[in-house]
Amino acid sequence: METLQLPILDASYTVDAQQVAGFQKNGHTLTRNALSKEEVAAYREVINHAAYKYNTESRPMEERDTYGKAFLQIMNLWEVDEDVKRFTLAKRFAKVATELLGVDQVRLYHDQALYKEAGGGFTPWHQDQYYWPLDTRNTVTMWMPLIDITEEMGMLTFASGSHRSGFVENIAISDESEKKLEQYVQDQGFAISRPTFMQAGDATWHYGWTLHSAPGNASKATREVMTIIYFADGAHVTRPQNEHQENDRNRWLSGLEPGALADSALNPLL
Length: 270
Ligand SMILES: O=C(O)CCC(=O)C(=O)O
Description:
The protein has helices at residues 17-26, 37-54, 66-70, 77-80, 82-88, 91-101, 175-188, 243-252, and strands at residues 28-31, 72-75, 106-116, 123-126, 139-145, 149-150, 157-159, 192-193, 197-198, 203-207, 212-214, 223-232. By secondary structure, the protein is α+β, with helices and mostly antiparallel strands.
């Protein structure tokens, strides 16, 4: 790959006060054209290249469980690919994250490519922060399709206002989380919200505690999505509440002990 030809993603993207207020109230928002057509086309190429190079899932769909059917999940490509690193560490995205969260600085938690294959299954209701041993609610995921997508390709779907519930259930993404959290969403009467259409380079943003899910991919194309997770600088590592948080502490926080400032080499200030 020719690193020099990649666009540099430093220029600011403007989010106005209304959008910030909407994000903090609903727990999610949509930024149109966060990348231009040219920018997303260039990064689609490098992310696809890295995602398929490092993907380890090769089982046929029918042999996978619900989580395995939902998407190919290829994590922390920025660590192993210099071109993807330019995307994941981009100042433009980090600045939007700080503005939405209303904080001075954010750090990187990790990136992940989430490719829902043609015929891929639904993404069960879950909260991302179930996985994260961090002592802040100021966490946010940017979710960006690299191709134009419609609802039936697996559009991300949010329960508006659900971030204010905090930690709802100590359950990983699974049939059980789908059942219990779907019921919770209904009982609480949260409005369900998802874009009907996203162009490549648009992005949604959601808090770590926002309940979300996605339908299966009924199209013939893979839903190529790249995500980046940020947290507010100053957060500390917490005592893991489940085995996944313990794995995350070791993997994404370089094994920092509970109580330590979450500032490992894998969590650069952006
Ligand atoms: O891409 C999906 O279907 C789910 C994405 C998700 O859960 C996330 O980015 O937090």
